[in-house]
Amino acid sequence: MSELNTKTSPATNQAAGPEEKGRAGNAKKAEEEEEIDIDLTAPETEKAALAIQGKFRRFQKKKKDSSS
């Protein structure tokens, strides 16, 4: 198994070149252009938002408590 780790190609250890960054930028633009229609007044959406907010608040509290 150690042979597999030592034979990694140098390209995997290098940062993306300008050509690769350009392709990633084009993909990102395509995602931004896609319009998503979410009914913000739906009860399911409100429940999901409350769940996400609760988890985020717990995360922030845990983060604050551990840094103190």
UniProtKB/TrEMBL annotation:
UniProt biased composition (Basic and acidic residues): 18-31
Biased composition (Polar residues): 1-15
Database matches in InterPro entries: Calmodulin_Regulator_PCP4-like
Residue segments, region Disordered: 1-45
Domain of life: Eukaryota
Family label: Belongs to the PCP4 family.
Name of the protein: Purkinje cell protein 4-like protein 1
UniProt lineage: Eukaryota, Metazoa, Chordata, Craniata, Vertebrata
